[in-house]
Amino acid sequence: MAEFSFTTEQQQLRAAVRKFCAESFDEPTVRRLMESDVTYDPAVWQRLGTELGVLGMSVPEADGGVGGTLVDQAVAVEEFGATLSCGPLFGTVYLAIPALVACGSGAARDELLAALVDGERTAAFAVNDSAGAFDPNVTVTAVGSGDGVVLTGTAARVVDAAAADVVLVAAKGSEGVSLYAVDCGATQRTPLVTMDLTRPQADVIFSDSPARLLAGPATAERVITHALEVGAALLAVEQIGAAQHMLDLSVDYAKSRLQFGRQIGSFQAVKHRLADMLVDLEHARSTAYHAVWALTEGSDDPALAVSIAQATCSAAFSRIAADSIQVHGGIGFTWEHQAHLYFKRAATDAALLGSAEQHRARVADLVLDSAIVDEAPRVAVGFA
Amino acid sequence: MTTAFDADQVAKIALEVVAEHDPKQVPLPEFLGACYDAGLSWVHFPEGLGGLGTSRGLQAVADAILQGAGSPVPLGLNPMGYGMAAPTVCEHAHNDELKKFFLRPLATAEDIWCQLFSEPGAGSDLAGLATSAVRDGDDWVINGQKVWTSLAHKARWGLLLARTDIDAPKHKGLTYFILDMHSPGVECRPLRQMTGQAEFNEVYITDARIPDAHRLGGVGDGWRVAMTTLMNERSALGASGSQRGAGTISEAVQLWASRPDLHTPVLRDRLTQLWLRAEAQRLTSERSRASATAGGPGPEGSIGKMVGAELNQRIYEFCMDLLGPEGILYHSYAMHGTGTGGDWRGPIQQRYLRSRANTIEGGTSEVMRNILGERVLGLPGDLRADAGMPWKDVPRG
Q1: Worst-scoring range by mean pLDDT, A172-176, A289-293, B261-265, B302-306?
Q2: Is A276 within 8 Å of chain B by CB?
């Protein structure tokens, strides 16, 4: 599967998801749900799992998935991003499912993975990350062994935890950090007011909460790193889906809005801003797709490819969302206009799994600090 | 889309060419001629005209093998020839005999080509140009002045856009010709630029004659033909290296790595931002190659041209800021021309000065943003004061 070439099936998948999202996640629905206690419709979520099969597209068939690739999953996520589709995408699809796929097979894992893929249950990923990388400083401790493990501690600001059925949580035991699954009923959750109402968070308190082991100290870091890389790549794809929607909306507005007797898009000040948004979007798209392909085919160092994508896509979506408000003028600043929903999503996505600056620092570590001098360019010194 | 030749077949043909005409052994024209005859000069051109009639994206397959065996990059030997003249001749010359007459010596770099478009009075508003072509029997008689003509002094042929109707609106009165640069009445004068070099020329044309057979496209159809040239120019200017870290950014990274004594965290982050922009553009070129078809480059090529130009400037600005006081020296302002090989681009300081032209040549960044806005995003055009006006009545100055 050549990089950047989508198959006919993937194009059909894109069309099908786009149609579903247009029907199920229209703006009034998104607005109604984001101000509800539960910010998504569980029946619609389940249809995504069973009817469309788009919640765990890269889950192997043996694990109850459709046996596709991460490219397939990315195609669906891009469309979710365009509509700000309601549901625990970040917690369940971007992080928990990839983590479970990377875990070794076992009763707890198999049962949970199948339920998440079908949309019967949802999960949040209560694992601290250090700018999108594994963080060994874990705030939850595990006591006991086997079926008797209980967890104590707090995981702060866990996305999608408020309405989740299960949290995946990293906890430190006597032998190191392991990954566990905990039923949310055995935790105490405090929902938080988030800037982006479509992406809710909660603090999760564990006090002697019974836990099932998913990955022990020998494998937990690998599993968590994999989940964070896949999650960051899918988040980048979500960002370009949302950014494309903002650009489309802004272009339409620049064509229809008249001032000084002409369409505002005929003014170069507006036109050139939109052209710059297009360039940023196309750059972001290339880096996001490259990260997805790198994770699918191993064609590039996944850590570098993901950091290139996150550094580029977070900056691009933030800028495109901000510029979209500017192109729309006064109406773009109102509650009734949808631009703020995307602007807030941009701010949220940019901060999750590492900021653009943090990923840029990682790129500098990987690329600049290792550069070897083959041929230093000639510098003039004042004579021929 | 089905094509006659797939990647494996193109690779096989390229391997045969290098086996029979080792570019390290045989004279260059022989090798490049063999590439042309085998259809590897422009694989998307028709068979018999230096191509295989296959997907444009497969050029990279051929180039990797040819250049891997030691072939120079043909675009560097005959930039206007390979990048602009060839697609224009291939698409618009009147018959195959004429196409072959021009294309093979172009491909072997025995005939260098130049482009006679810009004039002192017509830059971004190219369609306002004033050089005249008047019919006289089977010939056209040309008078006018062209400028920013690189390689005019070495060129055998020039792509000429001239006005054949002063009463028509500006775009409608143009016709496209191929001018023999050796013909009487064609005079090239070097034009010195801010680097001190004379990379470009002014070309004065006085009663030069062109046979009507060397007209491309119909009389009055020159603008449409010129679009083929300009799209390909921007695409060629915007093409970035396919290797990560290659191109201008490698100069900055190499300079950085060679001068640890000058490192600061602020400069490090600035270089990282430039590196990321270069990488995003490289991946975008790869992506657009992956979706390239046998057709010509689209307006999306303007992204690469614009980004590449602005990035070049920012990269050399970074280099100057890294060097500090060391950077404000120069090697020499003794006027000299340029060759096509060696170190003619000079030291970093000369490249820094030269990069100011990047956002002007081949379409200014302002024009590029108009193209992206209007042709890609479909935004309305700006108001034009000369719309529909006969060219002769348009104010000039």
Answers
A1: B302-306
A2: yes
Q: What is the ipTM of this complex?
A: 0.96
B119 is catalytic: no
Residue A339 forms part of a structural domain? yes
Model confidence pLDDT, tens digit, residues A233-291:
999 999 999 999 999 999 999 999 999 999 999 999 999 999 999 999 999 999 999 99
pLDDT digits (tens, 9 = 90+) for B51-62: 999 988 888 899
Nearest by CB to A377, which of B277, B348, B370?
A: B348
Beta-carbon contacts below 8 Å between A and B? 165
Provide the chain A residues 335-374 that lie in CB contact (below 8 A) with chain B: 360-361, 363-364, 367-368, 371-374
**Chain A residues closer than 8 Å to B381 by CB:** 266
Domain that holds residue A256: 221-368
What are the pLDDT digits (tens) for B168-203?
999 999 999 999 999 999 999 999 999 998 888 999
Establish if A274 touches chain B: CB-CB under 8 angstroms.
Answer: yes
pTM (two decimals): 0.92
Enumerate the residues of chain B whose CB falls inside 8 A of the CB of residue A2: 290
How far is A382 from A52, CA to CA, in rounded Å?
A: 69
Are the C-beta atoms of residues A254 and B381 closer than 8 Å to each other? no
| Nearest by Cα to B131 from B105, B109, B107, B164 | B164
Tell how many helices (H) and how many strands (E) occur in chain B.
Answer: 13, 8
pLDDT value, residue B294: 42
Residue A4 and residue B256: Cβ atoms within 8 Å? Answer: no
Helices A302-328, A356-363: axis angle to 10 degrees equals: 140
**CATH number of the domain to which A289 belongs:** 1.20.140.10
Q: Is B247 left (phi over 0), alpha (psi -120 to 50) or beta?
A: left
- Tell which CATH architecture fits domain B227-376: Up-down Bundle (1.20)
Q: How far is B223 from chain A (nearest CA, A)?
A: 23
Q: Looking at the partner chain, which of B253, B378, B382 has a beta carbon nearest the beta carbon of A368? A: B253
State whether residue A258 sits within 8 Å of chain B by CB.
no
Domain count, chain A: 1
Domain B113-220 has CATH 2.40.110.10: yes
**What's the confidence (pLDDT) of residue B242?**
74
A381 touches chain B (CB under 8 A): yes
Q: What is the fold, at CATH topology level, of the domain defined by B7-107?
A: Butyryl-Coa Dehydrogenase, subunit A; domain 1 (1.10.540)
How far, in Å, CA of A363 to CA of B322, rounded? 20
Is residue A4 assigned to a domain? Answer: no
Calculate what percentage of chain A has a pLDDT beyond 70. 100
pLDDT the model gives residue B340 = 47
Tokens of B24: 């390290």
- Tell me how far apart the 2 most distant CA atoms of chain A are, in Å: 79
Contacts of B272 in chain A (CB under 8 A): 360-361, 363-364, 367-368
Query: Catalytic one among B233, B251, B326, B366?
Result: B233
Q: How far is CA A292 from CA A74, A111, B320, in A?
A: 7, 27, 37
In chain A, whose CA is at the least distance from the CA of B344?
Answer: A378
pLDDT tens digits along A107-120: 999 999 999 999 99
| Residue A117 domain flag | no
In a domain, A275, yes or no: yes
User: Cβ distance A76 to A51 under 8 Å?
Assistant: no
What are the boundaries of each domain within chain B? 7-107, 113-220, 227-376
Residue that is written with structure tokens 């108001």 in the block: B383
Q: Kindly state whether A375 is in contact with chain B, defined as any CB-CB distance less than 8 angstroms.
A: yes
